[in-house]
Amino acid sequence: MSGEELLARVESGGLLAGPGPVLVMVSGGRDSVCLLDLAVRLRGAGAVAALHVNYGLREEADEDEAHCRRLCEGAGVSLRVERARRVEGAGNLQAWAREERYGAAARLAEEGDAAIATGHTADDQVETILYRLASSPSRRALLGMRPRDGRLVRPLLDVTRAETTAYCEERGLGWRDDASNEEGDYKRTLIRRDLIPDLERVHPAAKGNVLRTAALLRAEAELLDSLVDAELEAGEGAIPQRRFAELHPALRRLVLQRLADNAAGRPVAGAARFAEQVAGLSRGGSTLDLGGGIRAVLEGGTLRAERS
């Protein structure tokens, strides 16, 4: 695929379309470099800004930052650099880094009423689905990343890593390689380095089949979401307990998960598994912990979820 063909494909997806500005998260790797160039070509430099987070964890971190500065200067794009420093006891390294960069992006996007664009590719999607499938017993695990999630957009989600590489080479764009991506200490690295090649030995179309399955499941999820909407429409975040207990067990789990997610303002992992117990609540004022700081509450014959 030529660079012009990739440009046309991303443009047809509409995720970088206006009217508001676009904040591109730039690490300096080939995918984010490709995305920044595409965004400037489609929207113009004046409508694009960039964010780079320097975690200071690698010897090359300052060189990565300098590369992003040169890249953005050459493209005529303003760059915001955030320097995050990890304190002792901050927990999982990758989770901390993810929270830092998305938190910074959310603050900047809110200031400028901008969309946040990330360079996640089809390869990242496959890795995400396989990782979640292995680590999270939920339907959500198989859906993968959405092309659009609130302010967040992923314009390259149907573009492969090989295609972003070819685009950068054709356009003469330099990028930085993160050697830690090939280290075996991280579970995602094991999936990329070992599991996916093994699956491709089982069937050469393994990655494509994972992506197609996820796309089908996301389409079906839209139907399931509409059923949940219908059950909660009149209740505005609540449902009569009697009706909840009458629901098909699968729909009951989806309704409880939605109640919990809405109460928390974020996904509450595993809340759905308590659906049968919640259906058995019978006394007014009864509560049941759903995890994630959320509880189910039965009051006046109505079931709702709230923060504990």
Q: What's the end-to-end separation, in Å?
A: 52 Å
Q: What fold name goes in the CATH topology slot of the largest domain?
A: Rossmann fold
| Helix percentage range | 40-55%
Average predicted confidence as pLDDT:
89
Tell me the strand order in the biggest sheet: 3-2-1-4-6-5
The secondary-structure class comes to: alpha/beta
Specify the CATH homologous superfamily of the largest domain: HUPs
Number of domains: 2
Q: Number of helical runs?
A: 11
Radius of gyration: 22 Å
H and E order: HEHEHEHEHEEHHHEHHHEEE
Tell me what portion of residues adopts beta-strand conformation.
5-15%
CATH architecture of the largest domain: 3-Layer(aba) Sandwich
Q: How would the global form be characterised? A: globular
List keywords for this structure.
308 residues, Rossmann fold, four-stranded antiparallel sheet, 50% helix
Structure description:
With 308 residues, this protein is an alpha/beta fold. The chain has 2 domains: 3-121 and 145-183, HUPs (Rossmann fold, 3-Layer(aba) Sandwich), CATH 3.40.50; 236-307, no CATH class. The protein has 11 helices and 10 strands. Helix 2 links the parallel strand 1 and strand 2. The longest helix is centred in the last third of the chain and has 27 residues, at 206-232. The radius of gyration is 22 Å and the shape is globular.
